[in-house]
Amino acid sequence: MAGVTALTFAALCLPLLGAVVAPFLVRAFGASAAWLLALAPLLAFAHFASLLPAISAGKVITGGYAWVPSFDLRFSWLLDGLSLTFALLITGIGTLIVLYAGGYLKGHRDQGRFFSFIFLFMGAMLGLVVSDSLLMLFVFWELTSITSFLLIGFDHERDAARRAALQALVVTGGGGLLLLAGLLLIWSTTNATQLSTLLQSGDLLRANPYYLPILILVLGGAFTKSAQFPFHFWLPNAMEAPAPVSAYLHSATMVKAGVYLLMRLNPVMGGTPAWELLLPLFGGATLIIGTLLAIRQTDLKLQLAYTTVSSLGLLVLLTGFGSPYAVEAAALYLVAHSFFKGALFLVAGIIDHETGARDITRLGGLRKAMPLTFAAALAAAISMGGLPPFFGFLAKEEIYAALAHGDPRSIVFTLVAVSGNALMFAIGFAVTLKPFLGSVLETPKHPHEAPPLLWAGPVVLALLGLIGAVFSATFHHYISSPAASAIRGSSSVIEISLIPQVCVPLLLSALTIALGILVYWRIDQARRMMAVVLGKLGPGPDRWFDDFIAGLVSLSVRVTRFVQPGRLELYITCTFLCVATILLVPLWLYGEMPALPVWPREVQIHEWAIFLLAVLGLLSVVIARDRLTAIVSLGIQGFSVAIIFLLFGAPDLSFTQFMVETLSVVILALVMTRLRLSPTDRRPLGQKILDGSIAMACGCGFALLLMKATQAPFNNALTEFFNTHSKSIAHGANVVNVIIVDFRGTDTLGEIAVVAITGLAILALIRVRAQTERKLAENDPDAPEDLGVERP
């Protein structure tokens, strides 16, 4: 087991290693570096594939390393049928994507940076699906959002790419905050920090009084990440990313993170009325809306993007439907969709790369020029349409077997599934047949077959869809059945094969194909009709997002102008008002006012003199007619305190106080002289009363707090500690010096840093003053007037 743990940790680190070395390898070997870089995900894939026999036998592999043991926080992983399936998809398709990107971005100046981003995303996604720790799951969840932001905005010189990246980050990041709240609620109500512990808790979470808030928060995270209605708009906009990103993030991996989360939590959160209502409802709506919006598009990638939204909706519908067959159908469709949609996205990238066009109305007759690409596209489209002998056929049959029942709920969702699948059938074949068949149309580039690095990916994925169906028994044993078992939380055996059975699912498949052919035949009319309908409906969520961001920016500007008007006296007033409130309110609210001190019976004449000196200094500050006199008088207070320290046995502290007060008075006097501010206080009487009241409140607050502290029973534990250890540990007999220099060395360093920063601020003020005087001497109209300088 130790060997498996070490190898698993190494497999998880391989993509991160690839991110580090990618720029150097690309600089050294150019596009050929893709072959070397592809070894990282390939080795990780080989390791995870080696675990298939154990996982298919029903084992669950866990491992990891303690991070914060006192809080039971671990960097841990959980490998079962579901997480292993995702890990194989991420690393397997990731290998093909790395090779594809080597050819697609050949000669690109930022190819090394692209590889680093794609490997960082691969590592984040891999960490997400294998994490056992709830905290690590959230960390990797957010890392996928950040790395996808970098990938979507890879071509950052284009406004559309930057907008799409920001939109994806805002939507998925906002959902991530909802998920964090949900995970914290799960943690606090179940005391489970690991998924493996949570999955063994039975109905503990379902019976939790906070179940509904937890469900809503978790769905918020999952729906935003997996582009469920009404958060579906960010995924099509993300097609501004290069084709390798679209094929990897937005068909096979990242957008399925939300689906993975729902599948993972199904054993402990599924089966409730809320679960079986919300998931099918939003999933079904997403399925229909995505396909209808796909019909409207003419861009190959946008058509595929909207059908990806639809497929994600279908997966959410199946996950929440609540029957064993639905879970099995979700497991099958999860894999089938990764195969055929990944292949089609790569084909769309090849067409764009080799012809310079993606508009379906400007493409035609590419079959002879690109025969391998056409073959891969046709195979993927057959699987997407649910036709034999491809894996998509098995998934579609299982979907109808799960949904086709006699109750009204099943009938409604069966009709939704048939309608959505029929539209996806039409769009899949439109994407495949329209560009390759018909008359040859002129394109910006002369079309020709792509190099091996580009066509290898779609060919392999299309072949996997065929092999998985032909050898379905073996595939189910190692992949589908373990994944379905993990989603259900109990043993599940999938037995569907290519041999059709004359029953309701087969009849529904025939109906789906017939409707799909009809829509494909009239797809131009359907596109125009959808354009009219969408035009009448007005702006959708995409426009609402722009309005929301504009409103948020406007609100932030207003709030900033209100709380940050640029007036220093207002900032100081608010600060000291808060200090006075913090000091006085708790003392009064909780009945902690100190007892009045008892005046000592005997006070020495020199002690009276010190207190009288302090009072005279205070009066001098108040009645001073110019600022310089007030500053000098203010130093009298500090000197009085220093003398008190001296009289009561603290000469070191007294010396420090003398030095601080002297330096403060000298520096302030020099600065005030250099700035030449108004010599007198010009504040109106009302402002003086307000400022004086706040000052007195702060002074009283500190005095009352100190009196309350001194009236508490004295604990001499620290005194004994410092007296005992100052000599032996710090080798100093002066306890005060030892405390300042050694025991509180970091605090002293912080105080020195504060003094240094203050000095830099003073220097900046003086320099600004000199620049202002120079501008005024030159009669510069842009010179500021807020430094007490009058124009000549």
TrEMBL record:
Keyword set includes Acyltransferase: no
Root EC class: oxidoreductase
GO biological process: monoatomic ion transport
Domain NADH:quinone oxidoreductase/Mrp antiporter transmembrane stretches: 131-414
Organism domain of life: Bacteria
Residue span, MrpA C-terminal/MbhE domain: 689-767
Protein name: Monovalent cation/H+ antiporter subunit A
